[in-house]
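Entry 14. Two folds queued back to back today. First construct below, sequence then structure tokens.
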Amino acid sequence: MQEDKLLLVGSIPFDSSKEVFTNFGRPLAPWLRSLPDGETGLRKHWISRLHYQVLALHPDLEVLRRPRKDNGVERLNPHDASDSWLFRVKPGIESVLFCEPGWRLGFAREAVASYDLFNAMKSQGLLPAHLRFQISMPSVNSSIPRRIFETVGDLAKVEAGYTASLEAELKMIISKIPAEDLAIQWDCANEIQEVYGGVADMPKEGAIERNLEQFRRLCPLIPDRTLLGYHFCFGTLGGWPRFVPDDLEETVNLANAVISASGRRVDWIHIPLLDRVSDAFLSPLAKLQPRGARVHLGVIHNMERFNERVSAARKYITDFGIGAFCGFGRISPGELGRVLEEHLQAAKSS
């Protein structure tokens, strides 16, 4: 079987990582190079956890808006972009800094705990030896998108401190998990919207270059023996897809630029195909320059049209891996049985 045929983007909303490793990892492992821990618990809604666990608690930030209550009960995760967390940097603060380097954002803490279980299950033969532990993290610009700050000026005051904090988390992860057993993926959603001109106050002109510095800084820190991947995301907040471009032109342009700017080998990229099969939408894939990275296309959904999407994409890329459109954190856990069956069907048929 082909160990890089499937990619799991990240979130799988079981109650524990053990359930993810057992229920998804074991049956799909023959087609996977790496396995995420499911981003279970508070992490399943992706960046929302950072907003209420990290930013809302920061003494230099003021909360201007929080998600609407459900029947009088507080809600931590927004219903959609209209009630996402909104912050303002307090007067007199020019730079927002974060304490406890390596641990403040929570990525390293969760990764270390999940990896211990992952490693034990490999040692016991419950997961295959080839499988790597995958950590999927939102990029800087997706973690703190423009929409959660009152002004562009406020975003600028937070960005440097957050980047330094994420760098510390990355270094902590690398120090705690063996490089040859690790895979790191950057999740890029805000970047995609920005390069299509879909972010207020952030002009389309120069958008790609604005989003490269974070990767120039972070990626060279990742050991060569560790795998590196990117997920280019159209979003699920308020329903999938949150953002629908007319074609894949700017997605491909961003992917090419990110691969070039990473300063080290990129092992995979993931691009969702939505549910479109037209030449107008797909033809930019012919311009993709992966430079050795495995290309995974997000085609596992609406399975009645799965073969049509795969056939349409092969007109422009003859060899590619497959995955879903995104992580599954915002779907009901009751749907995971169907999701697993779709992945098994796709792996065996394509």
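Second construct, same run, same settings:
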Amino acid sequence: MYLNQAKSHIEKLLHMKTPVFMWGSPGIGKSSIVKQIADENKWGLIDLRLSLLNPVDLRGLPFYDEKEKAAIWLRPEFLPTEEKHGKEGILFLDELNTAPTSVQIAAYQLVLDRKIGEYVMPKGWRIVAAGNRETDAAMVTKMPSPLANRLIHLDVSANIEDWKAWAVGKVDSRVIGFLNFKPKLLVRIPKAEDKAYPTPRSWNYVSEIINLYKDPFDADEIINGAVGEGPAKEFLAFMSIYSKLPSIDDILAGKYNKVPKEPDVLYALCSAMVPKMKDQYVDNFVKYVLKMPAEFGALAIKDVAKNGWNEQIVASKYFEKWVEENHELVMDEV
């Protein structure tokens, strides 16, 4: 299932206090989904990488209690308590299946019984775990069946619409435009020999890289190092299209009315209008969109609406006409 659908299911399961395991490729946003759930519910969040722990780290260290004449286990500092971490939250066990089997076994009791040794998890805290699949060319340790049976398992993947819902306003519009044009390059399962490959995380790196350089073509080797040589070449070819674009300010100001015909240029144009939008441009934007091929007009309206202009677009005097002409393309987001 896609990430937004997984997010909805996970929220319901967490209100039941049911532990969940997300399986998915590296870099698709599994940890981001968990953070969003915590933020939206105003819950605490502890991100615990089990691959970095030894079994004794989870149980805690023993010390001799003189009064009881017995060894008592000290609670690990990173496990949640109400006093330090709040009444409600998520304990996120990331990279669970990359941890050694001995550490996974130590997690049995924590996942099933919400306690380990003398430590008891606060009632308002939930457990989410995540990891990569063997098919992702990741280094994983087979999960012991008793632990696997203690979790509800969800296979998750990224898709372009879910990613854009997050990316608009955060990721450079040129990267969004390229992935509108080449959505299959949002994620690619790496081959064993691949050092760099495209994922939502690595495209975010590309967004940051091209804003570090006045000329993004000076960063071609660095972009190669983020997403791999093939995707980098395709991205840089798309970047050259931006030189063919008419002035976005002139379009939105109503001073330029011609519409390009080439699909790649239209994809670039749609994404380039998003960060330029202002209140005074809404009518001109929708009026210009009316002249675009229907599928590109729908793409432009949807992406601009996702960036916070939904109500203004719907209120435009030209929007009703666009809906009449393109009613089959009207989407829920608008």
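Quick look at the second one. The domain at 3-155 is CATH 3.40.50.300 (Rossmann fold). The chain has a mean pLDDT of 87.
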